[in-house]
Write a structure and sequence with these properties.
The structure is a single chain. By secondary structure, this protein is mainly α. It has a single domain, classed as Cytochrome c oxidase-like, subunit I domain (Cytochrome C Oxidase, Chain A), CATH 1.20.210.10. About 75% of the residues lie in helices and about 0% in strands. The protein contains 13 helices and no strands. α9 packs antiparallel against α10 and α10 runs parallel beside α13. The N terminus is likely disordered.
């Protein structure tokens, strides 16, 4: 697999910020992570009203279809250029896609028709899929083409949500959130499986990860089956069994990747631990399927922990590599990674043991999340807006 940055293409020093997709979308994702959770805490404290169009569903929708979608767009558009050797969106076309994402975040706060909000927000993922499809189909890479269909499935989930909000589909919200969450998890796990073992072997002298053919063959189908049962038979014994099986399979998988030396390298342990938190989140969600814990509590370990930690680790690692810097995390980022892990445990586990302090766990988790992503923005903003330090394009 081609992971290294390609050196082709002219350098446009005046548009560095739009030279590759990771630059605007990782920065937007970091800022969105801070603002979305900060604003949500104000809503919970009664100091702010959510946008009328989304109502109480605003937080969940935006964390999936704003924050996570921005991370995925930045990663896949950048990676596709490396995989195919074909230039993906940059400069004004990339700026247009980024502006569309930004407009979809702002419109709900304005006095505009709901249909306009739905159209603007609903366009982003299909256009992203189209931008990925052109180089992937042209280069004839069948093993990468499924990314296009995963993005389209995520777009379908977003469409279901908007159809309910517009009054055209009862039950669309629950199905759309389940489908969107499932596709985000699928995309992050597929991308993680491609890069985490590679990064571990490359980053630790003498490291050799273990892989089992049967585990690799079942890894993606197990997650897709998990998504299917969560869509059709959520909170059932069947959902509990399927989710538990997926958790065990992926626990076996990351067990083969583990190397003791990862704890010396923050850019490695955050990725491994992020994947591990997905596994833990699946295990806890399996308990919800068996009726042992509330469903809402089970989801936040999976989202704050799995999606949050894994996506932050991937953004941190990719941005360093694609700006030509030595593969070493800024000292602040080690603390940021730890804070985000703490946020996941406070939000996903502590309410299970001390439910009477639920609001305190929620606020402390939100504060830790905000500090972690604020640190990311502070450290990475100069990298993302300035040219590569090695003078290469991108």
């Amino acid at each position: 697999m081609q992971i290294q940055e390609r050196r082709d293409g002219p350098i446009n020093q005046g548009m560095t910020f739009l030279a590759l997709a990771f630059r605007p979308f990782f920065l937007f994702a970091g800022i969105a992570a801070v603002l979305l959770v900060g604003l949500w805490l104000l809503v919970l404290m009664g100091k702010l009203a959510v946008p009328a169009y989304y109502g109480p569903h605003w937080h969940g929708h935006e964390m999936l279809f704003a924050y996570a979608a921005a991370v995925i767009a930045g990663f896949l558009l950048t990676a596709t250029k490396n995989w195919t050797g074909i230039q993906t969106l940059r400069y004004w076309p990339l700026g247009g896609l980024a502006l569309l994402w930004l407009l979809a975040r702002l419109l709900p706060w304005l006095d505009v028709p709901g249909l306009l909000i739905a159209l603007v927000d609903g366009l982003f993922l299909p256009l992203l899929a189209l931008a990925l499809a052109f180089p992937l189909f042209r280069s004839r890479q069948p093993h990468n083409i499924p990314f296009v269909f995963l993005i389209l499935a995520m777009a379908l989930g977003n469409l279901l949500i908007h159809l309910e909000l517009l009054g055209h589909l009862q039950g669309g919200m629950a199905m759309g959130v389940a489908l969107g969450l499932g596709m985000v998890l699928s995309l992050l796990l597929v991308m993680g499986a491609r890069v985490i073992p590679f990064f571990i072997e490359r980053g630790l002298p003498g490291a050799r990860v273990r892989k089992w053919t049967w585990v690799e063959r079942l890894a993606v189908p197990s997650i897709l089956l998990y998504v299917l049962v969560q869509l059709i038979w959520p909170v059932t014994v069947l959902a509990g069994v399927v989710t538990a099986a997926a958790a065990l399979l992926h626990a076996w998988r990351i067990g083969g990747w583990y190397q003791q030396g990862i704890w010396r390298v923050p850019l490695l342990w955050v990725l491994w631990l992020g994947y591990a938190l997905v596994v833990l989140g699946l295990a806890v969600q399996a308990l919800a399927g068996f009726g042992l814990i509330p469903v809402l509590l089970s989801l936040h370990l999976l989202t704050v922990g799995g999606i949050g930690v894994l996506s932050l680790g991937m953004m941190a690692r990719v941005a360093i590599g694609h700006t030509g810097r030595p593969m070493q995390a800024h000292p602040v980022m080690g603390w940021a990674f730890a804070l985000l892990v703490l946020a996941a445990l406070l939000r996903g586990l502590m309410p299970l043991f001390w439910p009477e302090a639920y609001l305190w766990w929620l606020k402390l988790s939100g504060l830790a999340w905000i500090l972690a992503f604020a640190a990311f923005v502070w450290v990475y903003l100069p990298m993302l807006i300035r040219p590569r330090v090695d003078g290469q394009p991108g």
